[in-house]
Every structure is written in structure tokens, then in C-alpha cells.
Amino acid sequence: MLSTGPELRLLRLLSCLTLVLLCQVTDAKKDLKSACNTCRQITENFNKGFERTANQNFGGGNTAWEERKLSKYETSEIRLMEIVEGLCDSSSFECNHMVEEHEEHFETWWFKRKTKHPDLHKWFCIETIKVCCPKGTFGPDCNACVGGSERPCHGNGACDGDGTRGGNGKCSCHHGYTGEFCLDCIDGYFNEVRNDSFSLCTECHFSCKTCTGANNQDCDECKEGWEEDDQETCVACDKVCSGCTGAGPDNCQACASGYQDTEGTCTDVDECSQSEPVCTKEHQECVNNQGSYTCICFEGYEEQDGECVQTQQPDTAEESEASEATASPHGEL
What residue spans of 53-102 are helical by DSSP H? Predict the structure, then answer.
């Protein structure tokens, strides 16, 4: 019995709430991935800035005096600020917001943690603000990807959310691989090596749709246009064949349309020489070609709306113009 009244309104409300929650979860996962990508870019830019300022100094006239009084430039707050100022493009809101929100962490790392934790990305993005995960892990708790963190997706695919706090860990397999664990092969590939944790998919012979090995004798199923011969090898059928047991027009199982069996070989049918004409419209002639024929208009005719219409000859056109000039009352002065 269909729900009516308050029950129907409640069901609709629950459906809307469910949809909103699903959208929020999806957006949250995207935001987590985006946050990690932003953080990774920031730390990469920090490292570039660190290298760029490696041979700089305070820029004054007496560097030795300045370093005695102010500390060394290489570990100074001035150098840190110069690096931090170049971390983001002015148009990148996410980058600038993250730097401003966590600026004190850069100071902490620069003055107190840099020696013990030289990997800024690991210390800042993974361990401190926790927007990224170690490589090969994903999600809020940095769980290992399918296949393990050392070889996500068994080395044959990409783990969704790899290295971020987002994603669901599912594998997107590289070309040639398929399945939840990226250990199976797609059609056109076969497992050259396979165990519980490793798979090597190799392309089949080009004649095979599916196969167990690399040669055309190893086909389980032939590609379209190829047929299995007496030796169970996939061979290309000649265009004159409809199915074949080998290459060439003399190995056809049947002849293709427009061809006929002539002493065991499929040969072209000359439709134009048959007793019944195949081009039946007026002023048409038949031209034979391989496997078919073409109807064309006689010389002096051209096709118009499916009919062969006589073309106007130049002499006729001149005579017509002369006749019109003679008939005109102003033809002579």
C-alpha cells in the first residue's frame, strides 16, 4: 500500500537528508585530497625557496658584523620570512589561507625541529596538521592501500586517496589489469606470472581476443575477422571469405557476399554480365568491381535526383542562343 499524507512527507524528508549527507561526505573526501595537495605544494615551494636562498646573506655592507650581532643569515628569521613570502601565488586562496593559519608551525620547525625532522612534508603535512598520509596509505587513519603500503594495488594500479587523508582506497588499475586487486588481466592480455601478491599481464598476439600465451596458437578466442584454422591457430580470413580454415581465398568455409565458389576458390561475381540486368533505370550502365558493382549514367548524362538526365551540349546551347537573338525584335540594328 502506498504511503500518503504525513508518512509520504517523512519519507521525502529522509531521502533529502540522505542525499545531503552523501554530498557532504563526497565533498569532504575531495576537500581532504585537496588540502593534502595544497600542503604538498607548499612544502615543495619551501624546499625550492630554501635552495634559492642558500648562498644569500643579509645584503648589508658588513655581513660578518651583521652575523655577529643578528645571528647567521642561513638560520635567521629574515631568511625564513623570505622563503615563506614565496610559498603561494597571490591568486591561490587555499595556499595562502593554509600558510597564514599555520605560520607559527613554520617558525617552530625552522628554529626547533629542522635538525631532528629534516623532511618538512612529513613533519608538517603528515604529523603536525595531519592533512596527508604516508605514501601507500589513505583516509583519516592512514590505512594501508589494497596490496599493502609498499606496493599499492600490487603495483598494477593507483590507490584512491594514496598519500592523503581522503579517498576510499579502491584501486584504479593500469591498462592491461582489472579486478579489485589489479591481479587479473583484461581481454587481450594473459597472466605471464601470477601468484597471490604479484601479477604480470602481457599482451596477447594481435589475432587473439583472449589467450593463454603470446603466440597465435595460444588464442582461446580469435578477434573479429580472424578464424581458427585446422591447427587451432587464429588466421586472418581473406576478404572474399565468410569464415575460413586458413589464409587465402582457397581456404574459405563459405564465400562472402559478391563472391562465388569457382573450383574451390572464392572469386568475384560479375553482376554486370548476368542475364537479369542489375542497373534498371533508363540511361544507366553497370560497372563491375570486386565483390559488388556500381550503376553510372551513360556519357552525356548526369544524375539528378536519382535519375540520369541528358546534359546540354555546347553546340546546342550556342544554337539556342542564336535562335533567341534572331527571334528578338531588336536582333538587328
Answer: 63-70, 77-85, 93-101
**184 CB-contact burial (10 Å; exposed 0-12 / middle 13-18 / buried 19+):** middle
98/80 Cα distance (integer angstroms): 17
Q: What is the pTM (predicted TM-score) of this model? A: 0.62
Q: Could you tell me if 146 and 170 are in contact, meaning their C-beta atoms sit under 8 angstroms apart?
A: yes
Q: 249 Cβ partners below 8 Å, 6+ apart?
A: 238, 240, 241, 265, 266, 267
- Nearest-Å Rg of the Cα atoms of the chain is 39
The Cα 36–Cα 138 span in angstroms is 11
Nearest to 157 by CA among 170, 142, 166: 170
End-to-end CA distance of the chain: 100
pLDDT bin (cut points 50, 70, 90) of residue 319 is low
Handedness of CA 94, 101, 79, 115 (dihedral sign): negative
| Rounded Cα gap, residues 94 and 36, in angstroms | 11
Nearest to 291 by CA among 244, 240, 238, 225: 240
- pLDDT tens figures, 137-167: 999 999 999 999 999 999 999 999 999 999 9
268: helix, strand or coil: strand
